[in-house]
Design a protein that fits this description.
Layout: H1 22-37, H2 46-74, E1 79-83, H3 93-99, H4 103-111, H5 117-121, H6 133-147, E2 152-157, E3 165-169, E4 172-176, E5 189-200, E6 203-208, E7 214-219, E8 222-234, E9 241-251, H7 257-261, H8 265-268, H9 270-276, H10 289-318, H11 324-327, E10 328-333, H12 340-351, H13 356-366, E11 367-370, E12 381-383, H14 384-390, H15 392-411, H16 416-422, E13 425-426, E14 432-434, H17 435-441, E15 445-448, H18 451-459, H19 463-468, E16 473-475, H20 482-488, H21 491-501, H22 522-547, E17 556-561, H23 570-586, E18 595-600, H24 608-626, E19 634-638, H25 644-653, E20 656-659, H26 671-677, E21 681-684, H27 690-697, E22 703-704, H28 709-718, H29 722-727, H30 730-741, H31 753-760, H32 767-785, H33 788-800, H34 807-819
Parallel strand pairs: 1-2, 1-10, 2-9, 10-11, 11-15, 15-16, 17-18, 17-20, 18-19, 20-21, 21-22
Antiparallel strand pairs: 3-4, 5-8, 6-7, 8-9, 12-14, 13-14
Length: about 800
Amino acid sequence: MVQTVTQIHPDAPKPAPRRTDAATLRAEILEKLAYTVGKDPLVARDHDWLAATIHAVRDRVIDHWMNSTRDAYAKSAKRVYYFSLEFLIGRLLRDAMSNLGLVEPVTQALKSLNVDLDLVEALEPDAALGNGGLGRLAACFMESMASVDIPAYGYGIRYQHGLFKQKIKDGQQIELPEDWLAHGNPWEFERREAAYDISFGGRVETVEKDDNSFKHTWRPSETVQAVAFDTPIAGWRGKRVNTLRLWSAQALDPIRLDAFNRGDHVGALAEQNRAETITQVLYPSDSTEAGQELRLRQEYFFVSASLQDLVRRHLKQFGALESLPDKVAIQLNDTHPAVAVAELMRILVDLNGLDWDAAWALTTASISYTNHTLLPEALETWPLHLFERLLPRHMQIIYAINAKLLQEARARSASDAQLASLSLIDEHGGRRVRMGQLAFAGSHKVNGVSGLHTELMKTTVFRDLNDLFPDRITNKTNGITPRRWLFQANDGLTRLITDAIGDKVLDDLDSLTELNRFAGDAGFQQRFAEVKRANKIRLAREIQERMGLKVDPSAMFDVQVKRIHEYKRQLLNILEAISVYNQIRSHPEKNWVPRVKIFGGKAAASYWQAKLIIRLANDVARVVNADPAVRGLLKVAFIPNYNVSLAEVIVPAADLSEQISTAGMEASGTGNMKFALNGALTIGTLDGANVEIRDHVGADNIVIFGMTAEEVAQRRAQGYDPRSVIEATPELKDVLDMMRAGIFSPGEPDRYKGLIDVLYGSDWFLVAADFAAYTKAQRQVDDLWSEPQRWHDKAIRNTANMAWFSADRTIRDYAREIWTVPSM
């Protein structure tokens, strides 16, 4: 049976928008409860009301979605396609209600039904589609692209279980499956018509044609199907609703009945299980060859499906591939989607018959690449034998790209050392495919994500590529969406701001600077402090409910929440906390500032050193929090399972934001922006976007310590002896001696031997080298906290001067300088 598609003319009348008053919403919520959820109000539970509310709000999102899609089609608009392995979108109900102006009417509608919106929306699971800053940036960018009226698709993977749900047991991280899809996802729509075959393995057949060119045909040994699930992403005021398209893997033949009927029930489902494994878990451990293969399969799976999808859409609307760069802008979010360069070449050359040079021109003009790291291990490389076995045709294409790249470099008199650096194939320590180099070579623009990071890219990881293509690297400092991270997460501060400078700030964030004139106003400071205290009371309640730990909202909330990694230096923070613990006990006569040290974040399942840092934080918390000699002046809390929803509670409550990475190693950071926007003071190194935050909020309104990136490089180059530094720093030596003696690990004194040995040995992340400067900076923070008027003045100025870090500004920069698309 042939299915027909009814074509709707783009100029067809648009349906009248649904009413948004409380009475209409009340009626629709009741209707959804009955006919979508199948419940009578008399027996409905909170999760039933959640589903009914989502469906009523979703209908209004869909109205804007349909209109946005028609508008883009009618205008033949250029679309942005954002490729990311992560989209940490969090809960969507509050986001959609806020952006469509529905919070108040929905609240009133539910209140009239004796339903509390706050209780209901808290039941919505976080979409487990990311881990840290990379995924949250992608989510912010999707919302901002819709808000500044840029037609866009986000492309990624519909993970069944995401990364993992973190549980802390006996101080240790335990990884559990994240079951966010257990009860379905009312925000998503399956698109059965958008299904594509994704192939792996096999061989390549090559035939010489009459014109002496060659035709390559890939004969794969395995094929799975990618099926699309679409989620609408609403922009501010509903101006545009864009699409997040996530791919789910399915087997072409889900069950072999012959095997099943023979009694081989496991074998009958083997193909289905192998296919579905691709989209089960985010970042499977790559410590084994099987784990490496699965990660490469994931990356190619979503890239191939996405490129097939956008090429199909382009050909359907515009008819010819020659206009691809005029209508398509593909942004690779880090190296994970870098195989897109080879896959697009395969689609253009092998499947559509373009000659190599024409296909390469279209590929490089369509693709751009965002680099997020200077860490060599994070610039993905794949064993050549694995890549060639899994993607044999792509390996041929990469060899061909590499040949042309090296020929061009040699023609410009590149040395052998430079050629080795430029090559897409790493010949040292086992031959590997360099995905960072592939992404760079196949893009017309490569951007860093902060000013410092971009300059370091030019002189470190991409030095020789930058010499070969000097106009390719550009900076696009990251940003955050103010809608979620101020208007939604911090309603109290938003009301205070609008009362002071007017509602215009909701549409023009740059007007935040007008808040500077209130920074020294005693009355405004008092109201600002009251908002902060209310947020801290909410977080204190959350900590007590989750952990059974009571903390004082009057204490300074000193917060470091982010992915656990050695370069982010949670260890430095913990060691300083132990040092303060020692001093409080030794010098009870001093007027110590009460602090609550708050940690949160996940360590990769196979990253043992990071998991040991989590355990140390919890062991220190156990000892410090129970010691009566501390008198409640210091408490330590590691809040488990850090995610977007928890961040929305933590960020508005923070007094001090810890951004203390080793200088030159954090590409940008976005947590630093969220905290500062919400009136927290930053203590940090001159790393990533901290540099630009200092420039915008003022050097007097941020606490900077430690070595600069240049000084870090010099220290390493000159020969760094951490043992001598530790011996010359009595406070640090005492802390390490306590750890070595088992004070925090009774019965297991060697528990932290690995951490201690690293500090005495290489200390690559310069924890010992920056310890003294960090402790001095923390005492400066204590002094400032003791003068509330000065503290509030600086905190208010942080909020007032953070508008530049809006993702809207970042997206407009991308649109103007990389994508060449108009924005609002």
